[in-house]
Amino acid sequence: MKSLRVKKSKTNNFTFPKCLTGMQGLDEITTGGIPKNRPTLLLGNTGCGKTIMAMEFLVKGIELYDEPAVFMAFEETTEELLLNVKSINYNMEALLANKKIYIEHIHVNPDEFRKTGLYDLEGLFVRLDQAIKKVKAKRLVLDSLDTLFYGLDYRVLRSEFKRLLTWLKEKKVTAIITSEIGDTFLTRNGLEEYVADCVIALDNRVTNQITTRRLRIIKYRGSFHGNNEYPFTIDENGISVYPIISQAFEQESSSKRILSGVSELDEMLDKKGFYAGSSILISGTAGTGKTSLAASFAYSVCQAKKTCLFCAFEEAPNQIIRNMQSIGFHLDPMVESEMLTFYYSRPTLQNLELHFLAIKKIINDINPTVVILDPITNLMTEGPNSDIRSMLTRFADYLKTQNITVMFTAAITVGSIERNPSDEGISSMVDTWIMVQDIEVDAERTRSLCVMKSRGMVHSNEVRGFKISSKGISLFPIIIGKSSTSSLSKRSAKEHLNLSTSKDSNKMKETSR
Amino acid sequence: MKNKFVAMINKISKKKKIKANPECAGEEKYILRLFITGILPNSARAVKNINSICDQYLNGRYELEIIDIYQQPSLAVQEEIIAVPVLIKKFPLPEERMIGDLSNTEEVLKGLCLV
Predict the structure, then answer these.
(1) What is the ipTM of this complex?
(2) CB atoms within 10 A of CB A328
(3) Nearest residue of A to residue B106 by CA position?
(4) Each residue of A429-446: pLDDT tens digit?
(5) Rounded to whole angstroms, how far apart are CA atoms B21 and A341?
(6) Residues 54-83 of B with CB under 8 A from A
(7) Any catalytic annotation for residue A75?
(8) What is the pLDDT of residues A295-306, one digit of tens each?
(9) B15 Cβ partners below 8 Å, 6+ apart?
(10) Residue A61 belongs to domain spanning
């Protein structure tokens, strides 16, 4: 695990003592974890994952930092709790058997007793004390506050809650207290959020019929923290939060190169091909050969005995294999030898984060050199636009830290690229951008390929025609009109091409009526 | 006329002394447990109150155990004590819990099923 550098300001070297949560992504957002030996409030409405996050905080504490823990449950019984987290690989039985975690259920029902005068909750403190002593706990969860304080007088509630926080600080345990989100205040009674040092809110929202879980740090006394909402997922390994990793900026850039699979294309890229660990976008209208280019890239990678992950969001893998076979690329043996792995999923099946999560998992398992996503435009309709851009940025950052070369293909509609709404600014994000288009040259339709940009290298600005035949993909120079290719600047060539394509589109519209 | 008279008597008795209902009391012995926290004010009051209530209404038909949760924490855990002080009527059934310093005598008697 990489050690985290906490950013210190120049004048003040104080860093608040923090407790690493051990949860993927959360430690980055909180710049080091939640406040040590102090209580953190975890808010959210039903079903947003508070109990699981609280449990994972304890489990990770035991697994990674050897800090025993206590889980005080007021809402669910111990059996119910264990059943709820059974689907996640926390290995609860072993932890319970080794006395690393102690789960206690306290039954609180205000209808079961009469109030005969003044009282306080000292009994609770005695129980907590007993529980902490049992396993020498350093981490504690109280789930949930509302159940505990339900039915209490407001005055008792207020004083006892303050007493609880002070008591927890004295016991030197880092605690997470879960609570529901109220209507007007953050919490039902409106006081807890003022007293706690750190408040984290969870959310489970439905947008465009897809639910996304989100996390936000509302306040964190004495520390810098990420202010935004971050998506997170829960799967069989637990919780993963997705911050934009700033470590990507600290990543060393490699100067190694990787071949594209089409030798003439490599020549256009400073004769050496793409940079290893960079991101490549191939955009083009339908049927221009993006998948073929991507597949030939995969082919050359596997031939060089490197692993490749091909994520197909439109065509089924078998179809791709069959199509590639017709142009001379035999992908079957590579799939069999497990050099090439296909991931196929319908974009509408799950939300963006879950897609990326599934891909991340496969990446962790097979450690590919190259990841191809064909096409990403299908994913983009499945979520609000701003989310897509940030999710893609996160994904690209993640791949950069793993030094994996990634290739995206994107389908664009006929017309100028700048006007295309589904572009989402991805072309500015990637390192290399290749555009393929259908053009009409001298009354003949042909495909053109152009390297629009390629960071960090001298690349050709020629618009080349490319041909896909049974012998594979090959590029050839185009002669546009009567002038020779060498005297045309890239700009006017592009304009000329755009004119041809828009002429085409007008022609198509006329004929289709 | 008679109704008015009865109502007036009841009103007076509510202020001074609450009449125990003989139907509810029965002949059984009362087993009571009072959980307290040392000599803190609420606990001190509870002890005083329970002693006076027992003397007044139970006529020696009771067994009272006063437990300090600091000295016997395991017992507190066993009985699931959260709020203190708390009086638990173990017998006669059903088991009743009364939290607080027992200053509201009417509630205590309701809980003890003497009203």
Answers:
(1) 0.75
(2) 14
(3) A116
(4) 888 999 898 887 777 778
(5) 83
(6) 69-70, 73-74, 76-77, 80-83
(7) yes
(8) 999 999 999 999
(9) none
(10) 18-243
